[in-house]
Fold this protein.
Amino acid sequence: MSVTFIINVLVFAAIDLISVLGVFALIGLTGLFSFGQVGFMAIGAYISALSVTRYNLPFFVGVLMAVALSVLVGLLIGFLTLKLRTDYFALATFGFAEIVKAMLNHFDSFTGGAMGLYGIPVLTSAPLVFGVAVGAVILMRNFKNSKFGRDCIAIRTDELAASVMGIDVFWRKMTVFLLSAVLGAVSGALYAFYVTYIEPDMFNWGRSVELIIVVFFGGLNSLTGCVISSLILSILPEVLRFASEWRTVLYTLIVIVTILFRPSGLFGSWELSLQQIKFFRRGENFARSDQHK
Amino acid sequence: MLEAINISKRFGGLVAVDRFTMQVPDNSIVGIIGPNGAGKTTIFNMLTGVYRPSEGEIRFNGRVISGFPPHQITRLGIARTFQNIRLFQGMNVLNNVRVACGFRQQYSFFDALVHLPKVWASERQIVADAEKYLDFVGLLPYKLKNPDSLPYGLQRKLEIARALMTNPSVLLLDEPAAGLNPSEVVELMNLIHKLRKMMNLSIVLIEHHMEMVMSICNYVWVINFGKTIAYGTPSEVQCNPEVLRAYMGEECNTEMEDKKISTKSSVYLPEKNPSMTFLEAKSLNVSYGKIHVLRDVSIHLDKNEIVSIIGANGAGKSTLINTLSGALPYRGTILFNGKSLPRRASKVAALGIIQVPEGRRVFPGLTVEENLIMGGFLTHNERELKASLNRVYGLFPRLHERRYQLAGTLSGGEQQMLAIGRALMSNPKVLLLDEPSLGLAPIMINEIFELILTVRSEGTTILLVEQNAHEAMRISDRTYVMQTGEIIAEGRGIDLLNDPVIRQAYLGIKENDFACIGENK
Amino acid sequence: MLLLQQLINGLSLGSVYALISVGFALIFSVLKFSNFAHGSVIMLSAYFGLWISNRFATSLWLTLLLCALAGGIVAVIIEKIGFRPIRLRGGSTIYFFVSSISISLFFESFMTALLGGQFYMYRNFFKETTISLGKLIIPWTSVLTLIVSSGALIFLLYVLYRTRIGIAIRAASTDLFTPNLMGADVDLIVSVTFFLSGVLAGISGLFLGINLTVYPQIGGLVIKGFVATVIGGLGSLSGAVFGALLLGMGETLITAYLGGSVTPIFSFSIMFIFLLLKPEGIAGLFGRSKLSL
């Protein structure tokens, strides 16, 4: 196992993590069950790749364009779907992702269609990806520990009670939806410039399901759990030399077992906090308390 | 001051609230009472923006607020709690309270992502405020616990603390005393007084707990079928005959009296005869989560008796029926003919104990005949099924006329007949009826009760849960009275109706309240 | 003439979609969630039929019968393991949904890992593959599909309207608890519902396998069934049939005149529009819902 191989695995894990964080905010914190994340990842990947390969724009401009478009699309889709009830919302976002994929396939003169887009320069480096991933985790932690995060959890638990507590439910949902879209787009862009070849079929609904699985497994309420779960489920199959075909089998089996026996996820609501690390280092006992600041 | 001016709410053809008008003066405590389904929570929902009134206006301090969304109404200063507690279970007590002042925290999304110093400051401030309120209601020691680990009474307090965090000038409490034991109710009453005084609040209360309403409210509004039937001070309302009638039911038909006496005398049993005990429940205890709904309830039914269970809303009558049907988990024993009942609803039904559920619950998408066929689901062969159908059609000619009609299009009375007919399809040994008169016109109620007598005369044993105490006790051999999950009285005949115990159970009128002596209903 | 040809093809495709969508709608109306595991039943039945017909050289009708039975049994097993525990502990709709998606993905990836991405073909059941009617050339399979689908739907109608268990299923779709009070055990009703939907899935699996060859992603066609039920009105059986026929014909025509890459855009956009504007679907136009006809 060479160093290059390890770094490779870690880069993919970090890219996945960024997108998972978006799904975490959406499904875990707010209870908005969306299948649309791959749609935003596709937008991020293609827009940034095309900006650079076709229009010779600098890398960061390309990524910025991808983010901007994903925000616009997110606003549009959000306005149309956020007022739907849970299962209709899931279906609508599913439809959105499929439409994106179908359009990428169809407008092949522009996107390369089903044959894909080749020759994307390698502009994503490991330090960049790690930096962005760490940044995203910090942003998400700040989000969760602010009034926004609390509002989202309230909305997830009981939308009616949340609105009666003064929360503007629609706009909170829109904020999270856009946040998650941006994270998806960034993840997609970083991915495109790492693997140098993208095709629409990479952004299929199976991928959305995998992301959801990671969040469920880690625990809907736990950011720490989400991060750990994402790392484990990205790295483990590589480390154990699983044939990649069995990776999905493993994922789905995990989630089925989790739902049946431990629906709150592996980590439930537990969060790693700085205080706990301090105590741990001093060797004192610390009580596992519920989520606090 | 909060005002509702002629507000109504219609759902399709159903009028849930009909031109309701109420004023809540500053710093007062106002109560809204009425039987189940009267429309009280709908009124609250309109006041808090959950529903938009179909007509009428709501004004708050002169400003029209009807039709505003809930979050806006809360930000204007009207807060509420819910009938079934709606705490945020994914977060601890402190955070539950913190959510309520989110809208007052002044930082933006981008500030939050980066956690600028002003975010830290705001969060610290909010924690301090939240702890202050928690302390006020006595919940500070529990601040890091999850709400579902708290006893029910404390969860209720938490709901109130959370509502207080939104800095309201009007607080709406929806059945705050539901599920509380007597000492918790006293604590609650004290808290409400404290709140009104120290925070200059107006409080509007929906309650079934009559003692509490009558002792703390300045004014009371009484609602039935969506309409106001009385309002005024508590003592004015307590003696209002309309109010008594709304709660305890009407005397429907004096002819019934004679008929009833004759049937009664043929099965009059002077005392409990163990060999005749058919269905017996011993020390039943049922809880919904943390709420202890039935406390040590023991009743028995003798063969071919008609026994009724009366009591105010929230007393646990329906829970008792559902427990007997095997629909709820319970501690205690239920014996049928000496043998323990299975703890599975379909098996209990298979033994011949059939329930006519509250609200009838006919299958609206099925025809009348298909509903009846469902009743006869366990019949062995087609021939027997046909025979049962004919028998039921014989009892209910109107159902026969409408047999291909969709059950959802029948009138309330016809649906009740269908529900009873459906239950009779399997030749039940014991028939459990949950509030058969609910929502029916007096003529229909007559018919239904007459029918119940007929069914008994064919050999069935009947247990009747009713809010209409009059009618129930007319036809029953024995009556149990329930209050907050316990049996508080058992007796025979109509004398029970004049017993002060019953009146207290229903209307919170205490024995030494002399204002209404002279009434003999 | 070409148009008539296309319409017949579309009708045939629509009839297969109808089998899928009706099975899907049956579960939705009783348990109120979108059962994606339906796709797995379809796929597994297709493989089963393949194995049986190749190994034992069974006739078409026998294979059909066995596929139907196998589908029913597999569906009941999936319910027992993947959905009943959730229902018994009162879990929310989302858990059913996630469980069904995971099960679907589990089987798909399992079969892919086990058998590789090969496409398998059914042997020819008939000597001639088409019939000619004047200028029309109609594949035998299309005719057969139409006939068998109609037959299966009529059979389903018979069960739902003339048998006690069928009446119980329709009762349960409006009220999942009350049938217990009549001695009709709801667990049994749910199992029978799944059996019936599994039978339909089994039949459609066989036909899809014959028409499209057998591969693990074939279960993904449940999406079509799902789009059809949205168009027709979630929970309405006649709506499901209607929606399926519309979808089948629409897709065939669009593929013929605009090309295959437009077709998914068309299908999902239609679904999206219906979800947003008229979630009760076409059935809603007639004021019907809930397993009505």
